[in-house]
Design goal:
Blueprint: H1 7-24, H2 34-53, H3 55-58, H4 68-71, H5 76-97, H6 100-120, H7 128-131, H8 133-145, H9 153-183, H10 195-214, H11 225-247, H12 253-284
Helix pairs in contact: 1-2, 1-8, 1-12, 2-5, 2-6, 6-8, 8-9, 9-10, 9-12, 10-11, 11-12
């Protein structure tokens, strides 16, 4: 079940939803776990449906051939049943436990992932760019669930951060599994660009991610000087790591996987930093 619902990814979705909810909250007493649970359930449903949609191509890829459907551990009908269960439960939780804006945002994320991004991956090597909207919407849903306007500059810059981060995150993955994606018939940038060109472009997107993260200081998102200093230090660290990555001349998978892990750790620390900063502010008020 954990593999069918892509638990590591859906848990991250829960974290970003929680971040949006915390940032829009005015006091600790109004906290509710229902919006986060609802988005988590929808994300689980979307992940299960994605398994169903990509089951034939997953069989062709070394990285995915042991997933439940291509390996025969689960049947297509069972995975569709799991999808329907999580979709209905997530919709119900958001409808009764949150508000319509959060529900609409959650359903839009579901639709965009499965009806736009997943089929687009078969058509263009640049599908990740529109597809990154999937990662940008969960914090917006959390923000809306806490009563914030989805057009507020604070949540728009947070959404932009998660949108931009996903692009280098995926392209680093391509440096590891590009041949695997090509084997399954997906158009990939590794077939259009040299490894060096892709690393240079990835470096540019990492730098843009850092610039957006640093701009949090100008949107009133951080409340304490220590948080702002920590954010700058964190951005300096990932920039230094990305410079070393850009200069790397070899082709060892371990180096690419290491950078993949570091950029993920960077995002997790940003989520934690922003959440703790706001929680401390609410606690002190």
């Amino acid at each position: 079940m954990a593999e069918v619902i892509k638990l590591r990814i859906t848990v991250l979705v829960s974290f970003t939803t929680t971040l949006g909810y915390i940032l829009a909250s005015e006091d600790l007493s109004s906290f509710s776990g229902w919006p986060v649970l609802g988005i988590f359930l929808l994300a689980c449903g979307a992940a299960a449906l994605n398994h169903y949609q990509e089951r034939d191509r997953d069989l062709l890829m070394e990285r995915t051939r042991n997933r439940p459907l291509p390996s025969g551990e689960a049947s297509p009908s069972a995975v569709l049943g799991i999808t329907l269960f999580f979709l209905v439960c997530g919709t119900a939780v958001l409808y009764f436990g949150s508000n319509l804006t959060a529900l609409f945002t959650g359903l839009l994320t579901f639709i965009w992932y499965n009806a736009v991004y997943t089929p687009l991956k078969k058509v263009t090597a640049l599908a990740i760019i529109p597809g990154s909207l999937v990662g940008a919407l969960p914090p917006v849903a959390g923000w809306a669930a806490a009563g914030g306007s989805v057009f507020a500059p604070e949540i728009l810059i947070i959404a932009a951060f998660f949108f931009i981060w996903q692009i280098p995150h995926f392209w680093i993955l391509l440096l590891v599994y590009g041949d695997d994606y090509a084997k399954a018939g997906y158009p990939t940038l590794t077939n259009l660009l040299s490894r060096r060109q892709l690393m240079n472009i990835t470096f540019c997107w990492i730098t843009l991610t850092i610039v957006v993260a640093l701009s949090f200081n100008f949107f009133g998102i951080l409340n304490f000087t220590a948080s702002a200093v920590a954010l700058v230090a964190l951005c300096a660290w990932i920039f230094a790591e990305s410079v070393k990555f850009r200069k790397y001349e070899g082709a060892e998978r371990s180096v690419y996987k290491g950078m993949f892990m570091r950029i993920n750790i960077f995002v997790l620390i940003v989520i934690t930093l922003l959440s703790l900063d706001k929680l401390l502010k609410l606690f002190l008020e």
